[in-house]
From TrEMBL:
Organism classification: Eukaryota, Sar, Stramenopiles, Ochrophyta, Bacillariophyta
Endpoints of the signal sequence: 1-24
Protein's UniProt keywords contain Signal: yes
Keyword Signal among UniProt keywords: yes
Keywords annotated in UniProt: Signal
Chain positions covered by the region annotation Disordered: 251-278
Protein name: Uncharacterized protein
Source organism (scientific name): Cyclotella cryptica
Amino acid sequence: MTMLHTRALSIVLFLVSFVAIVFYSSHEKSLTICTTHVEHVHRDREPSTSSIHTIDEHDTVNHPQNRISFRLHSPDVISPPFQFLSVPGYTCPPSIAPLPPAVDHPTILNFTTTIETDLKVLFVGDSIMQQFAQSFYSSVLIHASANTSFGSKQYVWGGKDGRHVILRAFINGAIPELSGLHVCSSLSGPVQGGGIVGYYRLLDLPNREGRRQYVYCKNEKGWSWGDVREFLDFTVEEDGEVVPAKPLVRANSTHDSPQTTWYKSQLTSEGNTTNRSKTQTVGSFNAIVIRPPGPGWMKLHEITRERIIESIQLLHELFAVETVILTTLAFNNNVVTSRDWKDMLAVNQMIREVAAHWDNVVSGVKFVLVQDFAAFTNEILWMNGRHLGYNVCSSLTMQPRTYDTIPAEWANEGPMFLLHRIAMREWKFNPSIPMVCNTPPVCVSFATTLPNGTTVKDINELCVMNITADKSQCFFNRFSRDGMHWCVETVGPRFSGSVACLLGCVYNGATYEKYESASYTDKTKIMEGVKECEEECNGRFMSLVPVDEGWLKNNIAVYSKCNHCDV
Ligand SMILES: *[C@@H]1O[C@H](CO)[C@@H](O)[C@H](O)[C@H]1NC(C)=O
Ligand SMILES: *[C@@H]1O[C@H](CO)[C@@H](O)[C@H](O)[C@H]1NC(C)=O
Ligand SMILES: *[C@@H]1O[C@H](CO)[C@@H](O)[C@H](O)[C@H]1NC(C)=O
Ligand SMILES: *[C@@H]1O[C@H](CO)[C@@H](O)[C@H](O)[C@H]1NC(C)=O
Ligand SMILES: *[C@@H]1O[C@H](CO)[C@@H](O)[C@H](O)[C@H]1NC(C)=O
Ligand SMILES: *[C@@H]1O[C@H](CO)[C@@H](O)[C@H](O)[C@H]1NC(C)=O
Ligand SMILES: *[C@@H]1O[C@H](CO)[C@@H](O)[C@H](O)[C@H]1NC(C)=O
């Protein structure tokens, strides 16, 4: 049942102007010149029509009604978002390759994000969503300090921002340091700006049939009212005091076994909250960010249009959300065949299509947006493939970002290099080389040398890690350690930035209020503006396009807002 394994590996990319890579293709028995360059797409919008704006901290006169804004920082000022990560095996290892030169720039992958919001946002999904929710916590609880001592089962947070609470979590096996803490549900709040952010581990798309009395959240699918109520009934303290660190405690579980130990935080509700100056019960969420957990926990063919629509409707019934952000499926080591790759592209097209045509009038959920994580990770994989020397020629501008037809040339190129795996004898799933390696691994018959000394690569060969050599020869790029999870220290700031940007499209300015009272025709117009804003957020954050240098300046807050939606 365990689809995701937790061992480690990692990479990065970005290609600077017209580097010609000469390659030998063993299939065509001819040389191909692969010309690659930085593709600064999605940037040709006139500044006046952009949905993304900045404000100087001191500029209070024009301060718009922003419910969510963000700031970008140098990692020297705000450290990368590792504070809340709870599974060591998913994180970048401490000794690690640098970013490939082409992407090693403060505006590409070496910035961090902080967010201020009064919204209530819930992240839903498997361990990959757990990583990104934990990364998001670092963006919204910047003064919280964590204390993660697995040996003594201590796992505590404290700080003046608000509390981070684990409602339910488990540790596998006898060596907690290796397993880490797998979270089933957690909450942070009040976050910077007063909002609440949560994470709910669901191993499939929630549907009515999936309702259970109790969900063994380690590897059981489904959802329960008990878990939902625990989120909604939770009380967050808002007295601005320093929140004392609370260690985890053993939780009673009817499903406890020697292989699994359950934990929870000492909950606020167990203490005396009545003498607090101000408390807030969660009650509902504004928005949910959900990634269908596949391919892996869910098979690609199970992720259907009907299932997605039912989930969106059910999430509204459970959490009263108005907005759902669907995260597209990224390549991972459960993509085994070319067919899987193409099926995954098709699922992502379907997700984009559902969001584009959401019936915003009759549904409980008013806005369905896409967070195009697949497009972002594809840019990383293609760039890193080139960095490793793969003959990857197709332009990233060709990859679909709308639900239009998928260009065949682009779709066919993926399996040519992504399915090239490093063989790890003790691993259940061999990771893709372009996903985890920083330099080409040692491969059996991988490299042959032409008479003049040029190296020729054949992607049909299987590669092995040369354990006698320096580990850095393959392992530990800055993208993924295991071919499944992502190094959120590197990609988390863009993920968090894109969520803040997408939510701003709906909640900043008067868009949301105008929408509520608008006529059918005006609703459609507002939706068009929101979709334009969504596209810009994805183009700027779910990509390797450098962010504006001005956004990295001190005192600059960035926010998105639907154009022409206020009138
Ligand atoms: C990111 O930038 C900082 C300087 O601000 C530098 O020390 C660090 O090495 C850079 N990190 C990467 C991964 O390039
Ligand atoms: C973190 O844990 C260590 C060891 O358990 C302890 O000495 C230290 O005081 C703790 N720090 C915080 C901030 O709780
Ligand atoms: C677990 O359950 C037992 C028996 O019901 C009870 O005595 C104990 O206090 C419970 N422990 C916790 C941490 O709730
Ligand atoms: C609330 O009451 C409890 C129990 O009397 C006490 O320990 C705690 O310090 C009080 N908190 C505040 C903010 O006064
Ligand atoms: C909780 O705090 C209130 C207000 O300070 C106090 O009246 C009450 O006795 C406290 N309850 C407990 C159980 O400490
Ligand atoms: C080796 O030969 C190939 C094919 O003629 C050529 O493209 C390549 O540039 C040569 N490499 C070097 C280092 O001369
Ligand atoms: C593995 O690495 C060692 C040390 O760099 C080297 O001596 C050896 O030849 C390599 N083995 C293979 C199969 O490349």
